[in-house]
Amino acid sequence: TVALCQPFSESEGRIGQFxxxxxxxxxxxxxxxxxxxxxxxxxxxxxQRLPFRHRITTLRRYVAxxxxxxxxxPQAPEPVRALELLGDNSRQARYPKLCSKLSKIMVQYLSAAxxxxxxxxxxxxxxxxxxxxxxxxxxxxxxxxxxxATLRGQPxxxxxxxxxxxxxxxxxxxxxxxVFLTVGFVPRNNFAQDR
Length: 195
Fold this sequence. Notes:
Elements: E1 13-17, E2 21-25, H1 30-38, H2 43-46, H3 52-64, H4 82-85, H5 99-112, E3 117-122, E4 125-132, E5 137-142, E6 147-148, E7 150-151, E8 154-155, H6 158-166, E9 183-186
Antiparallel strand pairs: 1-2, 3-4, 3-9, 4-5, 5-6, 7-8
Helix pairs in contact: 1-5, 3-5
């Protein structure tokens, strides 16, 4: 696997070590506060008393339905700011659904809630991982297919799913499992300022 990182300003976030690098937003980022205010996610996602996995699944299901299949907006070039993708643009329209767009939106919601995440470049597909501090593990999440990679009901990282796939060992995933033939980590999740 290859870790890639875009340069970023220290005032925008910091690098964290969580079994692999991830860029983490400062908690008071104004664009992320605006995202939560203008496009509020489900209450269960924001409720820190609920189990972590339930919160993440709730957000993933919400994000999966945010973008339409068809739109007056072009498929490319693709903005990186969740607000722009959701209609804060010159045409006041949402962009059409695509795996990379949904992943960018989801990591921005996660950042707004203080949850560590990173984009994962897969084989012809883009998804993300969230870091579960309680288990100390990354968990693969896919808002495009609205699913996660699991083994006997337990969340898997993208790298573990890759290892299982290439060793012909079964695991659960609601999309095509061959996307895990390639796994590249993109620690960047600081997309809100479009730099």
